[in-house]
Design goal:
Chain lengths: ~325, ~180
């Protein structure tokens, strides 16, 4: 009888325990299992710090991804005000200070090769851009670093002995672009730069062939596809700082808006810098915002994808 | 009598354990497809996670938005940055219950309907999603195809690019589960 009771008790208890715990336990078990599998979510590299490989004046940390081609058309009109501006040139629209046609091709997701030609000094640039450090979402790496190196050749026909030797035509720029996306809407970058220009423009006695410069640029997104962009650079060049009068130099500063429409990024800017190539705008900006020597400009960036995977059906 | 008691307890505990069996999948394939006038959009992720409890019918899915791979890298960036806002809403999840009974001990193909909450882009919608559960010698797999309307999850498509993006996205989900003993 004792045994029978204990048997019944065993059965009742175990059934009760089973009935009671099964739904509750399995619910939490399923949840905790899903959570445990999810907790493996790694820190992701931060993407889209900037929408394009260029902001206004300089390059951003963004590189062109593998097998993509970025086609760039950059235009700077003439002075809006001052002696060259005003109504007679329709506020500079009749003139073009510089026109740049460029191609950037992604060799890998972090490395691209850049080629472009400017109207200014008829300079042809060839460069490599390498994204060496990516910012991560967990802030283990708080900023992105991209290295940019470019060599340019001033290709124009020089009939007044501007270039005594062939090497005098060359100019080089090296940059370490450091950027941080502070929030979805705000990104800021610093660009320490080294410029070496074998024939610095303008051709003046004492003009430094090489100097350091610092660029600072930022973007504030107003909507998901439109943002305000600012780009400024300061060359650390005593020759440029000391030059006065007609030969005075002014730090290049650009302010504009950036609009993204799918494959295109349009940037509409006002800038005092006439030139588009890094070596030229850093060494030869002699236009003063205060004198009305700033201009309308635009950048069109169009991305083409040559990824073969695109044809593969999913 | 003692033996009967032990056998009964053992049987109950086995049954208990069987009822606790969970099925988990760490590499669920989730793909999206949409056809729009200008270009087709397609992407897939192979790192969805899922847990299925045959005893209760509970089914849960989770996938990281960043894990979706697009053939076009710019499309992938825009998907994350402009549409899904993956920095704010890193995951899409589904938690539901299979209405029909599925016997995971019997081979067969079971058409099912799963009712639950689909959470995409921070917006949760109660949905009933059709699917198929296939049991084959203890292996449980699931497939499903369903549509997600961008507007249902507050995914804005600007008029400037609306011709490139369809209003509804077709989702395909397939998962193969392995049994996980919960202790």
């Amino acid at each position: 009888m004792k045994k029978l009771i204990s048997l019944a008790a065993c059965a009742v208890i175990s059934t009760a325990v089973w009935a009671q715990t099964t739904p509750a336990q399995s619910k939490t078990a399923a949840d905790s299992l899903l959570n445990s599998m999810d907790s493996g979510t790694k820190a992701e590299p931060v993407i889209a710090t900037f929408k394009s490989t260029r902001l206004i004046l300089g390059a951003t940390t963004e590189t062109v991804k593998k097998n993509n081609l970025n086609f760039l058309v950059i235009h700077r009109f003439g002075d809006i005000g001052g002696s060259e501006g005003g109504g007679k040139t329709l506020f500079g629209l009749d003139n073009s200070s510089d026109i740049y046609i460029g191609f950037e091709y992604g060799l890998s997701d972090n490395l691209d090769i850049d080629f472009g030609r400017s109207k200014f000094a008829q300079q042809v640039d060839l460069g490599l851009k390498y994204a060496i450090i990516h910012q991560t979402s967990d802030n283990a790496t708080p900023f992105a670093v991209t290295l940019l190196g470019k060599a340019g050749i001033k290709a124009y026909h020089a009939d007044q002995g501007e270039f005594p030797t062939f090497t005098d035509r060359f100019a080089y720029v090296a940059q370490a672009i450091i950027a941080r996306k502070f929030s979805a809407n705000f990104s800021l970058q610093l660009t320490p730069t080294y410029v070496r220009d074998n024939s610095p423009f303008p051709f003046l006695a004492g003009n430094e062939r090489s100097f350091f410069a610092m660029g600072i640029a930022g973007r504030l997104k107003v909507t998901k596809r439109m943002g305000i962009v600012v780009d400024y650079a300061h060359p650390f060049s005593s020759f440029r700082s000391n030059a006065t009068g007609d030969n005075a130099f002014y730090d290049p500063l650009g302010i504009g808006i950036e609009i993204e429409t799918g494959g295109h990024v349009f940037t509409i800017v006002f800038s005092n810098a006439k030139a588009i190539s890094e070596t030229s705008y850093l060494s030869a900006s002699q236009s003063d915002w205060g004198k009305g020597q700033f201009r309308l400009g635009f950048t069109i960036s169009r991305m083409f994808s040559f990824n073969k995977k695109a044809k593969k059906a999913y | 009598m003692k033996y009967i008691c032990i056998i009964l307890l053992a049987w109950l505990s086995i049954k208990n354990q069987a009822g606790q069996d969970l099925y988990a999948c760490k590499n669920a394939k989730i793909s999206l497809f949409s056809s729009a006038p200008l270009e087709d959009i397609q992407a897939s992720s192979s790192s969805g996670t899922s847990v299925y409890n045959p005893a209760t019918g509970d089914l849960a899915f989770s996938v990281g938005i960043r894990s979706f791979q697009f053939p076009k890298s710019l499309m992938q960036e825009h998907f994350n940055e402009n549409y899904m806002e993956s920095d704010k809403y890193p995951k899409a999840t589904f938690k539901g219950k299979i209405k029909e009974p599925v016997d995971v001990t019997k081979n067969g193909s079971y058409p099912v309907n799963v009712t639950g909450e689909l959470s995409v882009h921070g917006v949760t919608q109660t949905r009933t999603i059709p699917g198929t559960v296939v049991v084959n010698n203890g292996t449980v797999s699931m497939t499903s195809e369903f549509m997600v309307k961008c507007a249902d999850h507050k995914i804005d498509i600007p008029t400037l690019v609306f011709k490139k993006i369809a209003e509804s996205i077709k989702m395909n989900v397939s998962a193969t589960y392995t049994a996980v003993k919960s202790s």
